[in-house]
## 1
Amino acid sequence: MRQALKYLFSLNGAIASLCLCLIIYNIFHAGVYCIKKYHENLNLPVYLEPGTQFETFKPFLKNEKRAGYLTSKAITREDNDGILLQAQYFLAPTILELQDDSHLFSIIDSEDPPYIVKTIKTLNAMRTTNNEYGQALLLRRK
Amino acid sequence: MFIIAHLISFLLGYFSLSLIFKETRYYQSLLHLSLSIITGLCLSAYLTFFVFLLFNKFYAWLIVGLNLLSLLGVILLNLKTNKNIRTLLNPFRIHKLSFFSYSVICAFTLLIALYYYVASVHPHGEWDAWAMWNMKMKFLLLSSAPLDDILTNLSWHTHPDYPLLLPLINVWLNSFSHTHMLYVPFITCILLTVSCAMFMYTGLSLFIKKGYALLATLILGFHPYFAFSATQQYADILIALFVLISLICFYLLDKESNPAISILAGLNLGFLTFAKNEGIVFAALLSVIFLIRLWQQRNKQKSNLPCYVLFLITLLIACLPTIIFKLFLAPPNSDILPNISQTGLQMINVNRLAVIFDYLGKEIIHKKWCYIWMLILIMVITKLFKFLKKETLWVTLFFLSYFIIIIFIYLVSTQTRLNWWIPYSLPRIYFYLLPAILFHVFYVYWPQNKKIENT
């Protein structure tokens, strides 16, 4: 008992006690995090794969090696909503070429009606399918 | 079904390491078992890489066949070197378990449960998981010309210059499925996270009392942000793991010059270079300290070949995929290298340096780290002299050098704004350095065992 107390009041003992306190603190926070996530996810039982909003596009692009991705949004390193990368991930192995309208199929992602109209007219394209998030798949008319 | 792939990798790693370890010492048995799955997965990933190099397509039967052939080869090599089955199965001998051992097993069971739950909170990983690592895995599995697509055709957002160890590990594990399985990266990240905690305990208990080793493991293991970051399905967990294993090898070599550990260190650093671009920097710095230390000990060595030669040869062989990838396949990295001809040197100024240091300091005291960095700082400050002793100075210098390199890269890179880049990248840097720094601090701080094999 005496040795244990001597150890506790030494520097090593103090650090060991600090470590133990940190472990308890970490376990508490890990527990809080798990409980919080459990309650958040009660209303979200299904985890959707990134890019699931492009599911309806997949049958059209199944045999396409490349497709265009046309957007009026900024796609820079810092200013990027990730939709292009989600689409690329979900539609793999079809390569999506940013701002390249030379392909048979192109995905248009814009909330700017003049841009959408201009793009459809320029490509002489028709809408094959779309999702409810503002993206559509265009097919060039022959 | 992909559990079979894990088993094949484990056996491949186990029997490959059997060629290196002579099992004369217990600590070698412990390391042997712990390292088998990680070494095996990396070797399988290397074999997968060579199939892609030759054929530029995913052939599951070829990849599986090559792995099985390699497994057969290493088993036969083991039997040829006069090892009988009893010697080969030495590490599996179950020693009598004490109460403390049961506590460790309970702790790891809880950790596995925690990591599974945290991983299931983000089952598809975070941004870079689906935007880079898992995307590359999908292209490797599904594309008709995967290397061309990944390295040339995909958008620059996917960092085509990054090495492919993690996607290749996942591709190998997917070889036992007809369609790509998103469950594979999920299980891989949990396995790597548990391995990190396991190496923390295994490594530290070789040098200090098991109680203190368990303290460090629990501090790391139950850390909420560590658990979250490790299960993001990024390659950062591979960096954390390999740097930790490298430190264990370094301190083992410090105690005694062992050819087996030299080979293991070279192998590990080779794997590290193929994990991520940062791995190349780590491997370069660690190679320097390994070579210096091995050169200093060259007169104490009993092997035919000096340990530093064995280390270099193994490192070069293990770096071969990285050398091929970086020299002949990958485009140059445009993120880090400064474009001095256009920007000049005006970015190197006190203002930028102050911003960087401000972020570095603020990250340490951020609440997500749950005061772990404060604990590390307290331990370093209270026994600062021990961190500057001859045997520990090299590792302390290694960490300081890496931080200097990070500060330099932030200082000279003009590709992005500092105020955007640092908050995004710095937590990840702290995350993959945390296990190694914690290991080093606990190794230095607590009294060490008289012998390595203190079981």
## 2
Amino acid sequence: MKDTLRVLHMYPNMLDLYGDSGNMELLSYRLKMRGYGFIRDQYTIGDGEKTDFSSYDLIYLGGGADFEQQLLADDLNSCKDKLLHAYKSGVFLLMICGGYQLMGQYYKDSNGQKIPGLGLFDYYTVASTDKRKRCIGNIVIETEIEGEKYKVIGFENHGGMTDNVSTPFGKVIFGNGNKFGSETEGYTEKNVIATYLHGPLLSKNPVLADHILSYCLSRKQGSAVSLEPLDDGLENRCRSVMLKRLLQTKK
Amino acid sequence: MFIINFFTILLGKIISGLLHLFGKNAGNLPGLVLWTLNKNCLKAFKIDCPIIAVTGTNGKTSVTNFIAKMFKGTGAKIITNPEGNNLDTGITSLLLNHCNFRGRVKADYLILETDESHVPVVYSKLKLQTLVVLNFFRDQLDRNGEVETLILKVNKFCETFEGNLILNGDDPNVARLGLANPNNPNVKYFSVEKYKFATDTLHEAGEGRFCPRCGKELKYEYYQYSHIGRFSCPGCGYGKISPYVRFTDIDLADHSFTADGEKYITADSTIYYMYNLCAVYSVAKLYGIDKKIIRKTFKGFRVNNGRMETFEYKGSKLMLNLAKNPVGANMTVRMINECEGEKEMLFVLNDNLADGYDVSWIWDINFSVFNNVTRVVTSGRRAYDIAVRIKCSGYDADKIVVRPDLDDAVKELFSTTGRKFAVANYTAVQPTRAALKRFTEGESSK
């Protein structure tokens, strides 16, 4: 019997803009095609007491609107110690957009309101008070996965400008990234990927999805797990259409 | 002021005339020029008749066409924008084409589909008598911004609006507009009784799960589709409405409903369609339209134009429906599932400016419920994106055929016989209609 991956999807009813919940569907799909199990537990406001964050293999937060981010900020902060423990013990943290911002020092929204972050990482985010000033569009970044360069394709739509990022997720090839015209995008560590990329992120980047899965499965089994390849024909053609279109218009 | 208005109209007329002379479409450009030159250009028009505006994320074009059809049935002279052109510039162009050189617009009623974000822009300049608001869903987020921002814009307009406000009482995002101006006695809600396929839990991505007044999570007795349903706030009681119109006995098989004690037959029947008709009926009731005309319109009128439009090729029936956001697409998937027997689907996905460049909304479409769909053909600029999306919902990849070119896709679809459905997003719908017409008419005349 193959392992079952357990994922904690935090605030799925509040942070689910732009098809971000699709990332859960993608992980589940790629596991099930290989005979692994997938369990997604949903965390909603007030569940902090009863939730054992460290028992999960992966913790996921999607993107949300300013209004929702304010509603959940207090609850998130009440889980700080438990989340910190999970992160230190190697649970994988995958965070998109609003989820990315909330794990930093703070997020100052477009109304000038400062939402305290969890402070797990040193970066902080400030949004322009001009609501029209947003980084919106297709984006391609180059990251490194197990020593090999890999282009990650997605869609960014954020007003927040993130600064003080020590270890970015990737180098921007097309689009904006952490700030307008930034050279870098997102934040990463061995067991952390925090990024502005929607799309959803894992839909056009199967190698990245498998990288996250191998990390989680290897950690669970205590030895390196190599995943059997899937037929990613459609995904790869989708990638080549987009890469051709985006990287050629740039020139 | 008079001189400026005179020249505004004159200039507009000249541009519009020239465009027509050269056989171009004058749907938007004359208005665009006038808005660029004069932000108050709408004030140059003299309009004495009532204006009825229809707004909301989904269903504007259909509802506008239905209302116009009914008023025409009474013999009234109507000016309307049946093809969209629903921004400030489009509406200005429409008025230019229908006014005299003094800017006078002669009609009995103006029935105007109006983009949500343009409601405040247009109706701060033109006197609006009735505003119909259908629904607010997530739609082209990269273009429109968050739904909340859009609602707040319309809400601000409603704060000082004293005309008739006809609101979907089953959409918490829309019903809240009724609170915007407590001094407006002309707020009216419409509602549809729980139908057969209503659910206890939310099945498709929804918006507005939290009370706009106190922030508590809303409770639902049932969901009709997406976040449309009977909701109430456990904190402050928001959501208790007494509807002006309530459709009951919704029978999708029979294509019928009951309103004010009378049964009506409809041309199509999905829950989504019923809500549109409920808005139409509310306007008809408000303006005292003869029930015979209402009955006739509901029974016989079809908007077509890519909205539940049917095509036929050698005995194989196809229904094409526009779906520009998850809710529209989920409704179409439901419709496909509710159709008995095997069927095939064509999904055409573009990412042009008017669609929004972001196609991640397709991941909010629930394809896992696919019932008896034997093959899927995908097309459009993002044909591979939608193919990946459908594959990862668990659908067999071998049954997916990608044909980015539309003519190829239509040909592929009709390489088999049987029931077909086509779904196309905003800029894809007219090219899809054209390709379907080319194929079904061209091939059968061979």
